[in-house]
Structure prediction request, 340 residues.
Amino acid sequence: MRAMVLERLGPIEGKPLQLREIETHKIKKNNDVLVRIEACGVCRSQLHGIEGDWQKYGIPPALPTIPGHEIVGTITQIGPSVKNLKVGQRIGISPLHGSCMHCDYCKTGKEHLCDQAEITGETMLGGYAEYITVSEDFATPIPDSMKSEYAAPLFCAGITAYKAVKASEPTRQKTVGIFGVGGVGHLTVEFAKLEGMRVVGVARNKAHLDVAKKVGADNVIQFTEQNEFLSTLKKEEGLLDSAIVFAPSEKIVDLAINSVKKGGTIVLGVLASIPNFDVFTEKTLRGTLIGSRSDMVDVVRLAKQNDMKIIFKSFPLEQANSVLEDLKYSRIEARAVLTP
Prediction:
């Protein structure tokens, strides 16, 4: 099969991903399915792994590897123990590729927190390729009405957005700020609106603010400098009830904390140090990480029921380097999707 293989870490401008012909995956476990990939979303976390930003977190754990962790494709072969899936069926695969299934997290529906979780595109070869295998337990069926390129972003951006909104303790008519309206952020706007919240989109890039408006944000504010931003926010909205942060910047994290009322909640969907935090304001800082298999089913259901807007553009698999470079410099409107 064809795959974009990462053999060395380095700036994406140096094209570290190389198109290779490698052996096609084979079913090794009785409950595995072999999937012909039709679409794989491009995520900023993959960029951090490729460029070596996350080596201190052990990502990627080994080279060579194949990135890509939001995948939709068609099953071409099933293992002898597979009961609930069939050849010809379309399924999606999230970053959660597997877990131990017997620890306290797995037993309580929080398998994404399992210490032995397998991560697509990191501990397991990912979706920048033509085929992949996955256990039927970690495959999510896709409705026939959903195009693969539309559905793929749901499997990382979608579930991350959904979980972040839930973590913000949404309540109708409360105001939430989405800091970083891009591939994940624009879906966060939509999930927050489904909860009946007033949504303020925040971004540096005017094009991203336009995306926020397109998917239903009630207001948008461009970030330039903290004092100026806070002045505008207080004038137009007052302080926020909660904030969700997807911009990978300590300055933006600090801004979000200062934008929220005393007793409010700030949800972090990025890795960042917390430079300043006043404990006497009784604010809550909460991290969020993808979601469970049950969450993934809910995300697909909500997207279908509400005809959610997923703004994406498709590119051929071999253009992965240039697409990631465009993502790095904010030249992608929302989500990019690779098609083998």
